[in-house]
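Journal club side-thread
Mid-discussion, someone asked how the predicted structure for our own chain would compare to the paper's figures. Pasting it here so we can look after the session.
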Amino acid sequence: MKLTNKRRNDILTEIIKKGSVTVHHLSNEFSVSYETIRKDLTFLDQKGYIIKEHGGATALNSLIENSFTVRQEKQIKLKKLIAVAAFKLILDNSSIILGSGSTVLELAKLLVAKKNLKIYTDSFPVATALANSDNELYFFGGKIRAKSSSVYGGWTNEAINSIKANMCFIGSDNFAGHNGPTTPSYSDYGVDKLLLEHSNKKYVLADSTKFEGSSLYQITNWENITALITNVISKAQVDSLASLTNIIQAKNS
């Protein structure tokens, strides 16, 4: 069963990467029969992850991951607003973990004004933004993942397992239909999950557009999150999460 789940995860990753694939390609790629691939595609289609077609499959547009550079420019005003709200929570001399999200990057830019923080990150853009600040900065090593401009793998996990921080801030992909923050990347899922486990307070930074649409991997449950920091959202959106976690709504000053 574990091998089947891994193969299906790898097939899904391949479909998302290429946009569309044929049964023939997947059969050769994973060294299994056409019939096995068809069963895998049926399973993924029923889960709502892909669209199964005659002779192959196509990725849903909502699951195709944009590069970090593209994501960085989306909803930039809301991201800056959310970053300010998160900044106000950080006390002097704290130890904090910053994930690889584009909203987290906006928080990192604000932290240049702080001093004597101990900051850990897996994100190249975050590390670059803070490189010349008066804070103590640690970058987790590991295998580079270009899509998120971050690192992952055994070295990354080993470094994370050696620390414990006061606070952690991560981003999230769209989370409708999920009971927690999400990511389209299995690699990022593993790192973000571990980052949260190694902090006392855990915050998710996500603008209101993330309430619509879905993603692949749920990082953790909302019950494990200290607070979701977002912009002003509707009553229905508040009601959907209010019983699960705290919600901080960033407002224009």
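Post-session note: The first strand starts at residue 20 and ends at 22.
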